[in-house]
Structures are given as structure tokens and as C-alpha cells.
């Protein structure tokens, strides 16, 4: 992998093809991707990717997912500016889950929080343990829901 100002890219097309050939996509052509903050190990989010999204992620060093609701590629940060730059892309032992180590600019969650994993059980109630760091309306121009 070569490091750029925007992320780590794999410049060899054959190497990218080898990675993609090892991925076990589901019957919809998707694989779950867990985004983890490089350096801290914080789990930021989980999303889906198809082969095109993984290819673009590897080729550009900027993390790309597949939006099931829009049925289209989702270039993380294209609307909000909260970009994820690739540090390393790892495949699990079964080939059916991808771990993206990323440099996250701003927040990862559409709720304005750094991580999507902010809800826990406390005294029998589902409770938010972190507050938003950014206003979702400012990031997206409108209220952004699940």
C-alpha cells in the first residue's frame, strides 16, 4: 500500500483484484464493513460494501460504502464532509467481513456523534452515553434519520 495525503491506496490493480477475489460477498453482492479508528481502536460504524465500493476504496484511499436504501455507492463524507481515509483494509478469516482502519475527519455517525455505537443498557433503559459533537442538520442540511 502507498500512503497519500488523503489515505492509503493500493496502486497495483492485480493486488486489488486478489483482495476482492478473497471476499465472500452475500447473495446480494454485499459484505459488512466495520470502520475502526486507527490509533485508538474505537469502533466507529458498520456499513455495507459491494465489490465496486471496495475497489474504489482500495484504489483511492478514501472509504466508500454501498447504501442499501439509495441502492448506490456512498462515498463517506460526500454530503457531510466527515470523510474516512483508509489506513488499512483487512479481511477476516472467513472472508465474509471487512475491517477498515480509518482516519476519521469529524464524526462518523449521522447523529453527529463520533461513533454509531453510543446506546447502552443502563438501569434497564437504553441510554445514550455520548452526546453529539456536531449538529446533523448542519452536516446534512436537514434532519437525518435512520
Automatic annotation (TrEMBL):
Annotated cofactor note: Binds 1 Mg(2+) ion per subunit.
InterPro entries per the UniProt record, alphabetical: PRA-CH, PRib_AMP_CycHydrolase_dom, PRib_AMP_CycHydrolase_sf
Positions annotated to bind Zn(2+): 93, 109, 116
Reaction(s) this enzyme catalyzes, per UniProt: 1-(5-phospho-beta-D-ribosyl)-ATP + H2O = 1-(5-phospho-beta-D-ribosyl)-5'-AMP + diphosphate + H(+); 1-(5-phospho-beta-D-ribosyl)-5'-AMP + H2O = 1-(5-phospho-beta-D-ribosyl)-5-[(5-phospho-beta-D-ribosylamino)methylideneamino]imidazole-4-carboxamide
UniProt key word Hydrolase: yes
SUPFAM superfamilies, sorted: HisI-like
Quaternary structure annotation from Swiss-Prot or TrEMBL: Homodimer.
PANTHER family found in the cross-reference section: HISTIDINE BIOSYNTHESIS BIFUNCTIONAL PROTEIN, HISTIDINE BIOSYNTHESIS BIFUNCTIONAL PROTEIN HIS7
Name of this chain's protein: Phosphoribosyl-AMP cyclohydrolase
Amino acid at each position: 500500500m502507498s500512503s497519500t495525503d488523503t489515505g492509503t491506496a493500493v496502486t497495483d490493480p492485480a493486488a486489488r483484484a486478489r483482495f476482492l477475489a478473497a471476499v465472500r460477498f452475500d447473495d446480494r453482492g454485499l459484505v459488512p464493513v466495520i470502520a475502526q479508528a486507527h490509533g485508538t481502536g474505537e469502533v466507529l460504524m458498520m456499513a455495507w460494501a459491494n465489490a465496486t465500493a471496495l475497489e474504489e476504496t482500495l484504489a483511492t484511499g478514501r472509504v466508500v460504502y454501498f447504501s442499501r436504501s439509495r441502492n448506490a455507492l456512498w462515498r463517506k463524507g460526500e454530503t457531510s464532509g466527515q470523510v474516512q481515509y483508509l489506513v488499512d483494509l483487512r479481511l477476516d478469516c472467513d472472508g465474509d467481513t471487512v475491517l477498515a482502519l480509518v482516519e476519521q475527519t469529524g464524526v462518523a455517525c449521522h447523529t453527529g456523534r463520533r461513533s454509531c455505537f453510543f446506546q447502552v443498557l443502563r438501569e434497564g433503559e437504553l441510554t445514550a452515553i455520548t452526546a453529539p459533537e456536531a449538529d446533523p442538520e448542519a452536516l446534512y442540511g436537514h434532519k437525518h434519520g435512520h
